[in-house]
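Quick one, tokens below:
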């Protein structure tokens, strides 16, 4: 399989994105504003990106919480751009874990993902 067709195949697969975040300390007014911003972000998600879980706590870590998204790899950069645009000034730290849906992937696809994945 040619690299170009493998990239298209990889980018069309479903992936899971665990985005862990630590929010800076906020006043009650800032928290209320943040919840309104988050509601707006949820309405603007890139096509084919879905939220699977929103967790307001991430016990056992130094993160405030995490969100699990699902969707094609080629939409992930659009998602991170949207998140940074609307919440960049509130977030102190993030960590993103990207996984393929399902337990088994061909090795060539995994290599392509590792070589082209975005980095926090």
């Amino acid at each position: 399989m040619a690299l170009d067709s493998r990239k298209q195949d990889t980018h069309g697969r479903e992936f899971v994105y665990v985005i862990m975040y630590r929010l800076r300390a906020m006043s009650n007014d800032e928290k209320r504003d943040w919840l309104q911003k988050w509601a707006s972000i949820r309405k603007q998600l890139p096509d084919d990106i879905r939220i699977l879980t929103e967790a307001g706590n991430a016990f056992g870590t130094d993160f405030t919480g995490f969100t699990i998204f699902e969707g094609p790899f080629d939409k992930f950069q659009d998602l991170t751009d949207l998140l940074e645009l609307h919440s960049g000034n509130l977030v102190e730290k993030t960590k993103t874990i990207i996984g393929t849906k399902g337990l088994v992937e061909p090795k060539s696809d995994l290599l392509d993902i590792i070589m082209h994945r975005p980095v926090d």
